[in-house]
Design a protein that fits this description.
Elements lengths: L6 E5 L2 H5 L11 H11 L3 E4 L1 H7 L8 E4 L19 H6 L4 E6 L6 H17 L4 E5 L12 H13 L4 E4 L8 H7 L4 E5 L8 H12 L3 E4 L1 H4 L4 H12 L1
Parallel strand pairs: 1-2, 1-8, 2-3, 3-4, 4-5, 5-6, 6-7, 7-8
């Protein structure tokens, strides 16, 4: 199933990074997330290996983005997220693309950069797009939402061969166009990020799309909302 390089990607990769604290009795099940994805017609679903193994099948009709690395929040040292799932396994699980996080600015960034390079080559050799979660983080990063830091992450993703880069929304959104230009031919997707109130996410998406972003990869701000299907449909209309 071919991945559309624009639109709304529904993210559900929080269980490893955050534990079960983001979930309630309903959205703790991947089946609930897949029902939302199908009814709203999202452009992709983002899973780690476990949910993909036990809940995803191609007849769902939604492309799967398989996240290949992750970490828990139980360790408080410099951020490091290493590969836990192979590209070969992604192919077996019928993934349409693979994803990987790099914490630029961590003292371990060299390890993640090296690992991403190998994954990028393996995935592209199999015809799979590669998505980078480009998240500057570590002792040397004072503000990971500063516009210059977000633009740096965008450029780094392009330099390393990512097809799509997922970025935090900058605290100062007066020059979103520069972030898109920094990413060159890499498509830029906005991360949903922390819980937003009211129509704030729609406001951010409107500005981002106008600046040249290609879409949003969003999780909690959808499946924690009262009407996730309507929210996704509004976002899809805005993105086109």
């Amino acid at each position: 199933m071919k991945l559309r390089m624009r639109g709304v990607f529904l993210a559900y990769d929080h269980g490893l990074e955050h534990g079960p604290t983001d979930f309630n009795d309903v959205n703790i099940s991947p089946a609930y997330i897949l029902n939302i994805a199908q009814e709203a017609g999202v452009d992709a679903i983002i899973f780690l290996k476990g949910p993909a193994m036990h809940f995803y099948t191609p007849d769902i009709g939604i492309p799967l983005i398989l996240k290949l690395n992750g970490k828990t929040k139980l360790y408080n040292g410099e951020p490091l997220s290493v590969q836990s799932t192979s590209v070969e396994e992604a192919v077996k699980l019928n993934a349409s693309a693979v994803g990987y996080t790099i914490y630029f600015g961590s003292k371990y960034e060299h390890l993640m950069i090296k690992e991403f390079g190998r994954i990028e080559e393996e995935a592209h050799a199999r015809g799979l797009p590669v998505i980078m979660w480009a998240y500057p983080r570590g002792k040397g990063i004072k503000d990971d939402e500063a516009p210059d830091i977000v633009a740096y992450a965008a450029r780094a993703a392009f330099e390393l061969g990512a097809d799509i880069v997922k970025l935090k929304y900058p605290e100062d959104d007066s020059n979103l166009e520069w972030i898109v230009k920094s990413a060159a031919s890499t498509k830029v997707f906005m991360a949903g990020g922390k819980k937003l109130e009211g129509d704030e996410i729609e406001s951010r998406v409107e500005k981002a799309i106008k600046a040249g972003f290609s879409g949003i990869a969003v999780g909690r701000n959808i499946w924690q909302s009262e009407d996730p299907i309507s929210k996704i449909k509004r976002l899809k209309e805005m993105i086109g």
